[in-house]
Amino acid sequence: MRVPRTCAALLVLMTAVSCTAAHGDDAKPGAPAPVLPAFQRLLPAPERARAAAPGTGYRLEPGTVIRAGSASSGETREAAERLAEQLRASSGYSLMVVDGDQANGILLRIDEDAAELGDEGYELTSNAAAVTLTARTPAGLFYAVQTLRQLVPAAGGGIVQGGTITDRPRFAYRGAMLDVARHFFPVGQAKRYVDQLAQYKVNKLHVHLSDDQGWRLAIDSWPRLAEYGGATEVGTGPGGYWSKEEYRSLVTYAAERHVEVVPEIDMPGHTNAALASYAELNCDGKAPKRYTGIRVGFSSLCMTEQKKEVTYRFIDEVLGELAELTPGPYLHIGGDEAHSTGAADYAAFMDQAQKTVAKYGKTAVAWHQLAAARPADGTVLQYWGTAATSAAEKGRVADAAKSGHPLILSPADRLYLDMKYDLTTGPGLTWAGYVPVKKAYDWDPGGYLGGAGVPESAVLGVEAPLWTETIATRADLEFMAFPRVLGLAELGWAPKGAHDWTAYRQRLAEQGPRLDAQGVTFYRAPDVPWS
Ligand code: TNX
Fold first, then answer.
1. Strands (DSSP E) along 209-322, which ranges?
2. Could you tell me if the CB of 215 is within 6 A of ligand 1?
3. Scanning 215, 288, 347, 496, which has its CA 20 to 30 A from the CA of 455?
């Protein structure tokens, strides 16, 4: 008997799983998605899942009580309250939250001794008496809750499939980047993105806060950056910027969802907005006009002997204020496409920028062009090459990785969410080619630079950037991000053994109603069997 491919892939991970509803490659594109057994529906796929007999498990009822453990910490209670809120919304049940650790109802518990669950892992068990969520950390508990949300049938109550899931992420860094510089988006939009991402266990939001077309964060010591340099964007729109208070509110909001904000000030190129705001930053002492086009590579901070001092004071004060706003370890300093900075000046500038980040107790992240200069100890490199990237360039990145620089992989021809899906896509660019949903998903981050000598252990994780030269509205933003960013979430979390396009696209299809319910204007890719 031929085992359908869907099951073949899942059987690697699961022992007693039921494969009755699985189907093979012959599922027609565009045909409605058959309903998958609950554990096979999860996105991202869990590390291990053992389903009990179909139809067994915990039945969610109006009187179901949610228990927040006995030595209930604030965080367990918070996770329980948040879960209750979400399940109430979908079920209409009252779902009381109480302290206590009886395995009766839905029980959330932190077990600090559960070392095998790591920093973000969890265990979920479901039987007739209870659903029990166990984690070693609040982040793990949060992810257990996200899994449970996917196991509860979308409409109303119903049975949470019986069995046990033991789950941990494949990579520690699972990120998405939002460019608010080319087109400005208010903090509320970034929060909405955080909510959308966190439910799929994405844990980093990188915000690209400055570029030629706009400076988006208030800096007290250089107020014209935001006030003047923030008042433009691509085209004729009014731009805008985030106050420090707004920025802090995003950081807090994200942290409550176990998402860390990674801020980027791109330097020494991509700096026209700063150069336009302060004449003294320019080599000739004259401020250029503000810029609203989409060219790259024409601007640079000044590195002449005479100007170095003001340039270094500028980055010291900007990065100092940024560090003060950033509880997480990373400050991203850009370093890409500095085509108007000489190689020696670039290297010297990036040395200083990395030193400054270290001075403020942070770890620098930079685009991988830094590999051609001098990445400092600990600096993380973000790779954005493509299949066409030269062996020499990949080699430099590999050398950096081998000497201890962790890599974040953002291959542009896989994970750039601003690339068009195909020739019919309205917004978007095409310089890295079309990126259909399958292409965004169907590659292995662990082995991606293996040919150049990068071991999987050097890969910190993956990130999908969303550049916004051509993206000005929430609808376009979500259309470009969804559903490709779910592929990012899957690559970042799911075990390598779960990788299978045929199975993945069915799981993806199951997310359609969920995205619809959240009002996400996602692209209905023709090769995904949306219901
Ligand atoms: C390359 S990726 C850029 C961005 C553009 C993007 C458009 C990178 C580090 N630089 O400045 O917005 O392409 O796809």
1. 210-211, 214-215, 260-267
2. no
3. 347
